[in-house]
Amino acid sequence: MAFRENFLWGGATAANQCEGAYLEGGRGLANVDVVPAGSDRFSVGSGMMKMFSCNEEHYYPSHEAIDMYHHYKEDIALLAGMGFKCYRLSIAWSRIFPKGDELEPNEEGLKFYDNVFDECLKYGIEPLVTICHFDVPMHLIETIGGWRSRQMIDHYVRYCETIFKRYRDKVKYWLTFNEINMILHFPFMGAGLYFEEGENKQQVKYTAAHHELVASALATKIAHEINPEFKIGCMLAAGNTYANTCHPEDVWRSIEKDRENYFFIDVQSRGEYPAYALKQLEREGVKIPFVKGDKELLQTYTVDFISFSYYSSRLVSANPDVNKMTEGNVFDTLKNPYLEASEWGWQIDPLGLRITLNSLYDRYQKPLFIVENGLGAVDIPDEHGYVEDDYRIDYLREHIRAMKEAVELDGVDLLGYTTWGCIDLVSAGTGEMKKRYGFIYVDKDNEGNGTLRRSKKKSYNWYKKVIHSNGEDLE
């Protein structure tokens, strides 16, 4: 059998994409709540358009999402019905500290997650908790500029201490930041960064990144002090970048693109800034805001495992005239003529998952965890809400096969696999509901209309069989 006996099969969600109830239970406003659906989403999410509050001209899908806040018992029961061993979810920071700078947490928010974790444990489901899945309390963005300020480290550490102590007997696996490299690509969504005119964006991004990296090391330190059994991971938006041709300049460009993303994990896993990053930042005139003790912290408190999302590989050319770009998450990529693409232009590359697993394991020699992988597609339900989603089954089957080969044939140490959006939720990239990933259909459309009724898709019973057979039965 390829996978370990206690392999953590499951699925993943994020609070801001599924919970809704954005101002209930004492929760404060967060950056994720003011990023609208529609044509302004990218401008706001990338920090180019200032939107620090909501208005009537825009629709904000996170406000209700799929209302898991009120449906969590039903939803977790559905996940348990597939035999989930693990459920990756995130805590909404502003549910615990509504403004972010309070000295005492919001008990109602803490109690909500107590209930969620208890519900998981009732079914034998291991929670895997993302501490910060893009959430930043808006009060901290308005008062100190989000992660550009070093004060954020103290606020984050207080938040971590609070949840580590509260859930020390309920949660074992933690991720410090979701897709930490997204700070370079979607900085307001990723870290609450808004850029003033004329500001050195690279300096701001890497200043914020340094603060997050120090905060991650401190979280790892505190976690192991509170409960030595805790396992702390980092999280990367992964996918290897291929060279467009065998021209050495293309190959070099592909190495540079991969390094942009490896940089964060190099620090979190190896404990120091890599030489290539220091040289690159020096050339760009970017100064890393080290203070006394930072380097020792990063060196001493590295993560226990590496987690990552994988949806597709990427392709790059050094030739500026080669410009047939495809859509694809928020990462630019050339169209790969050897790959098919999803309805949103994400290139489908199962072998790329095996390549990515090997690249990460060769680089870090730490256990890996695939915490996001899935196919966003338009699902057409029948009158009962049933969806014949063979395309999703095909996508997942081939990616699980590739994952299996990485474990069985290449010796990659893999802890688990949680598919993205195990229940339909709001897309982080586009804000749409019609871009669905789940095994469970939720009756809601892009405009927020629908009954929120849950129903099982064809993939629900297929994934149940995969889990039951520990990945042996993929038909």
TrEMBL record:
Keyword Transcription among UniProt keywords: no
Family annotation (PROSITE patterns): GLYCOSYL_HYDROL_F1_1, GLYCOSYL_HYDROL_F1_2
Keywords of the record: Glycosidase, Hydrolase
SUPFAM superfamilies attached to this UniProt entry: (Trans)glycosidases (SSF51445)
Positions annotated as active site in the UniProt record: 372
Record bears the keyword Membrane: no
Family: Belongs to the glycosyl hydrolase 1 family.
Protein name: 6-phospho-beta-glucosidase
Organism, as annotated: Turicibacter faecis
Lineage: Bacteria, Bacillati, Bacillota, Erysipelotrichia, Erysipelotrichales
Gene name of the encoded protein: bglA_2
